[in-house]
Design goal:
By secondary structure, this protein is mainly beta. Helices cover about 10% and strands about 30% of the residues.
């Protein structure tokens, strides 16, 4: 069996596929790649099924070697990537010889790289997925220096030449995301609802795979709901924007808890959540009304 040996795992690297839907009723979130489109692209470039397991690399500082010749692709964030010291292109398939050192440097745009290898990462599946859920601990462990990962067998004749990949550098400026008000918007003042769409929010450094915390003017609850006390716990979904008593909103991401007692003022549609995977701490976000 072909293997990948991680020499440096960087700040946070995990195995991710497209997640394990259908288990929220037993307290297990979907998890999976935060930037699903980037993982799917990387897999297509190396001839895998779009949902094959790859490696999500946060910030960079990752290096690895393979014990056989392999096709790889790196997508998502934008930064220096080298093979045996030679620069290689992101968003393109690259053939690596056995023993060549792959190094993924610190991201210059975006935040999360995705590494796909022909055949996929073949760690054991848990509840039908190879994704690491950092909140619940479900799935494979967070990658560490020296860990060896088994690879699957590439599909015969699966590689196709690719001249152009229609992906570029992730945005570094203000990112605008559509937002849908509800289901607990009535817990907040009219001024807070307006502030959601007029405020320029900043991604907090405390953000992670569980949620994107936003800094800005605190959102205030209405006097009526303050008198009610706390909301009983209810089901949560990725994209829900919870507002704790501090008033600082958090966009729930892939490893979110499946229940929560903070009111959800609005929801980011699933199709827009990939944008949050590539936001950098301190980057600005604006919301517009969804249609």
């Amino acid at each position: 069996m072909t293997t990948l040996r991680v020499l440096s795992a960087g700040p946070l690297s995990t195995v991710q596929d497209l997640g394990r839907p259908g288990f929220a009723s037993v307290g297990v979130s979907r998890s999976g790649a935060l930037d699903r489109a980037a993982l799917a692209l990387a897999n297509r470039l190396v001839g895998n099924e779009q949902g094959a397991a790859g490696i999500e690399i946060t910030v960079g500082g990752f290096s690895a070697v393979f014990d056989a010749d392999v096709w790889i692709a790196v997508t998502g964030a934008w930064g220096p990537v080298t093979s045996a010291g030679r620069p290689i292109d992101v968003n393109h398939p690259v053939r690596l010889a056995a023993g060549e050192l792959l190094e993924i440097g610190m991201a210059e745009a975006g935040l999360r790289y995705y590494l796909a290898v022909g055949g996929g990462i073949e760690v054991p599946a848990v509840l039908g997925s190879r994704s690491t859920d950092v909140l619940s601990g479900t799935g494979p462990a967070v990658l560490t220096d020296g860990v060896v990962l088994p690879l699957g067998s590439p599909h015969p004749e699966s590689m196709r030449p690719v001249d152009i990949s229609p992906w570029g550098r992730p945005d570094l400026g203000v990112v605008t995301v559509p937002l849908y008000v509800g289901p607990r918007a009535d817990w907040f003042t009219a001024a807070s609802i307006e502030a959601l769409f007029t405020e320029t929010w900043t991604l907090s450094p405390a953000s992670n795979r569980v949620g994107a915390r936003l800094d800005g003017t605190p959102l205030e609850r209405s006097a009526v709901t303050i008198a009610r006390g706390e909301l009983p716990s209810e089901g949560m979904v990725a994209g829900g924007i919870q507002v704790p008593p501090s008033g600082s909103p958090t966009v729930l991401l892939a490893d979110h808890p499946t229940t929560g007692g903070y009111p959800v003022i609005a929801v980011v549609a699933s199709a827009s959540l990939d944008r949050f995977a590539q936001l950098r701490p301190g980057q600005e976000i604006r919301f517009r009304h969804g249609r």
